[in-house]
Amino acid sequence: AAHFPEERSRLIRDIVELLQQTINLREIVFVIQSQSNSFHVSRAERQRADLLQQTQSLTQTPPPILLLHSLTDNEGDWSILPVLPYLSLLFGKNSSWLVFLEEETNVKVTKLLQALRKFDRRKEWFLGKPLHDEESTIIHHYAFAENPSIFKYPDFSAGHRLQLPISACLKKKCYLPMLLQVALYIWENGQGPRLTAVPELCTEPEHSPTAQHCATTLSSPAPLCGEPVKKEDIFVAVKTCKKFHTERVPVVKKTWEREAFLLEYYSDHTDPSIPTIDLGVPNTERGHCGKTFAILERYVSDAVPKTRWLLVVDDDTLISLPRLQMLLSCYDPSEPVCLGERYGYGLGQGGYSYITGGGGMVFSRAAVVRLLASDCKCYRDDAPDDMVLGMCLNALGLPVTHSSLFHQARPEDYSRDFLAHQVPISFHKHWNIDPVAVFNRWLKDKSRSTSPRGLNKSTKEEL
């Protein structure tokens, strides 16, 4: 070795680096943001197996790798905030870092360790890939309205890291969880840590040549799991009312209606020219619980063809049905599946999750049958249908399954970087936009074939 000083020095550096990695690895707790639906459980299990394989090559004692949906009985753990006290109590004494990963987040463990060693573990840190709003938006409650870009929040797809203990922020109660609100919660009005950008936390595609430096990359958010669901297996229910027959319904007909095989418009007025069906429920200015439950009843009746899936949308929802057909190939319709963009109400105080109606609510027939067999009903016709359904599902112990490809708001209401690694399925609202132009830009695929087989290859790979 004395004759080869450079090789000896390099060997010593490699040994020291390996020891440092081993020490740091023992101080990390990986938390996979898993869901209880069987498809998502299988994805999370594969992700955990990959992490175990990587970490076992670095240490004999692998770090804890947890599946979020199985940690406690609290249904709201998916929002992260309610589970932080539990994780702090369980791992706060022996671990320095909590690493949260979405199911599609790939991790190169050695690169992650190298990135974390830059930060003094004696201090509190909140690390991630920062996003920001260019304009104040309703989905973030118009936070920082004067200059929304000054506050950064994490892109969960890149993963994010919290250093334990985070004692200050754990004293608070938990409210509606969103990316920005998690950051606000930890920031604690300037008393806690702000989000620190880590360039190695990326949302580049897994095999992208630009991802060589990345500790995290993305696999497909929802791979094509088999043949796309046939359009004959999806019944589409569009909620409308007389005053929007000439304003919103024509947009549906110009954009996505042609992709539907079975579709009905439900209104408070019968209009043969559309045509619409009057379910006998008066129109309400707010919540449409009575109308939605009437749709559920009609879906399981002999009035419509029997299908495996029900899609309920508003008349100002823009949606790609071929992309939905591909996504649904991953789900088992014999399970009670309730799919869409998930929100929560009072999750830190025993609340419930629900699917935001504007982005589209997807139900398997099994889920609709379970819902209607229960005693759950609207307390008023104008109650918020999505939230009432959430309460019903919570009472029945049925999970709400989240997909980030559904959107309750317009593209303008989301960070550009957040949408950059998506092939979205839906957006909502016509306010201050040209909805046909939005559909053509974001949801219309290059191929005009009405068959999902006609979709271009890149769209399939990203979905």
Detailed description of the structure:
By secondary structure, the protein is of the alpha/beta class. It folds into two domains: 5-218, Alpha-Beta Complex (Spore Coat Polysaccharide Biosynthesis Protein SpsA, Chain A), CATH 3.90.550; 231-462, Spore Coat Polysaccharide Biosynthesis Protein SpsA, Chain A (Alpha-Beta Complex). 28% of the residues lie in helices and 18% in strands. It has helices at 5-25, 38-56, 84-91, 109-116, 179-187, 249-254, 289-299, 321-328, 365-373, 385-396, 416-420, 435-442, 457-462, and strands spanning 28-32, 65-67, 97-101, 105-107, 126-128, 130-131, 153-154, 160-163, 195-197, 201-205, 216-218, 234-239, 262-267, 276-278, 309-314, 317-319, 338-340, 342-345, 352-355, 361-364, 401-402, 426-428. Strands 14-13-12-15-20-17-21 form a seven-stranded mixed beta sheet.
Structural topology:
Elements: H1 5-25, E1 28-32, H2 38-56, E2 65-67, H3 84-91, E3 97-101, E4 105-107, H4 109-116, E5 126-128, E6 130-131, E7 153-154, E8 160-163, H5 179-187, E9 195-197, E10 201-205, E11 216-218, E12 234-239, H6 249-254, E13 262-267, E14 276-278, H7 289-299, E15 309-314, E16 317-319, H8 321-328, E17 338-340, E18 342-345, E19 352-355, E20 361-364, H9 365-373, H10 385-396, E21 401-402, H11 416-420, E22 426-428, H12 435-442, H13 457-462
Helix pairs in contact: 7-10
Please report the total strand number as a whole number: 22
Instruction: Please compute the radius of gyration using only Cα atoms.
Output: 24 Å
- Kindly identify the CATH topology of the largest domain: Spore Coat Polysaccharide Biosynthesis Protein SpsA, Chain A
* Spatial sequence of strands, sheet with the most strands: 14-13-12-15-20-17-21
- Average pLDDT for all residues: 83
- Given as residue ranges, the uncertain stretches (5+ residues, pLDDT < 50) are 164-178, 448-462
Q: Based on helices, strands and strand pairing, what is the structural class?
A: alpha/beta
Instruction: Tell me the major beta sheet.
Output: 7 strands, mixed
CATH architecture designation of the largest domain? Alpha-Beta Complex
Assigned CATH class of the largest domain: Alpha Beta
| Terminal CA distance | 53 Å
Number of alpha- plus pi-helical segments: 13
Strand content: 15-25%
Q: Number of folding domains?
A: 2
